Amino acid sequence: MIELTIGAAMMYYFASHALDIKEQPAEAVYYSEIADPREKSFTRNHREMVKIKPALENQFRGIVRQAYDYSCGSAALTTVLNGYVGLNLTEQQTMEGLLRFGEYDRIVERRSFSLLDMKRFVTALGFESGGYKGEFADLIKQQQPAIVPINYAGFKHFVVFKAYKDGRVYVADPALGNISFDQERFKQIWENNTLFLINVPAEQQKNLLALQEADLRHVDDATINRYALVDAQFSTDYMNRIADKASTMRKVIDRDPNSSTYNQPITSFMRLYYKRK
């Protein structure tokens, strides 16, 4: 019995040390590619690690996602405080600050935060801020993130204006993530042309809300309508080459009398076809 126990322990020890098991990053994905047997490298398999991130992670890059349906204001403010001012707050901490320094009774009554509540909390943090009313050109001219109220899909909502480029307005939406609007569409939903700005010394400013290449990958309605129902077309020769590459090879005698390899061994590709009954 003792010999069996010692033997099992030794087997486990050597097996665990013989295999090089290392902790892999969470975003690591491995894929193996079997080499084409018709190529000289058919004896080798290629295995490679790639790092991927969920699309949702990039969608909310730099954004504090709102935890409640009524907390877009606190989430938008936290997004600016972290991504531009350089703080490190949670939405819960921001909500507690808004309740403490804002108009508590009115917040509870309307179940939302106002720009005045934001100003009082930001002042308590030691920064100057304020709500302003201006034209679209004034919003762009600020060259900094601004909290703006919008009326979208029948709901009043707070988002963070990030940038304007080539006729599109890019915003950080606490509910939907990094999205953009056509310039005219944004003007329609921008409520009362109001914006909230926080003054931050240049040396303290962060750029977590800066426009990135991923933000520019929008698809306009006209493009979607033009290509939504278009089928991709490939030549027959191209599809035959793809089918041959995915098929099984076998050696046969060429029985075609018109072929230059008549009565000689040739490589044939066996394809698997499916048909409905």
Automatic annotation (TrEMBL):
<feature type="domain" description="Peptidase C39">
    <location>
        <begin position="66"/>
        <end position="197"/>
    </location>
</feature>
<dbReference type="GO" id="GO:0006508">
    <property type="term" value="P:proteolysis"/>
</dbReference>
<dbReference type="GO" id="GO:0005524">
    <property type="term" value="F:ATP binding"/>
</dbReference>
<dbReference type="Pfam" id="PF03412">
    <property type="entry name" value="Peptidase_C39"/>
</dbReference>
<dbReference type="InterPro" id="IPR005074">
    <property type="entry name" value="Peptidase_C39"/>
</dbReference>
<dbReference type="GO" id="GO:0008233">
    <property type="term" value="F:peptidase activity"/>
</dbReference>
<dbReference type="GO" id="GO:0016020">
    <property type="term" value="C:membrane"/>
</dbReference>
<protein>
    <submittedName>
        <fullName>C39 family peptidase</fullName>
    </submittedName>
</protein>
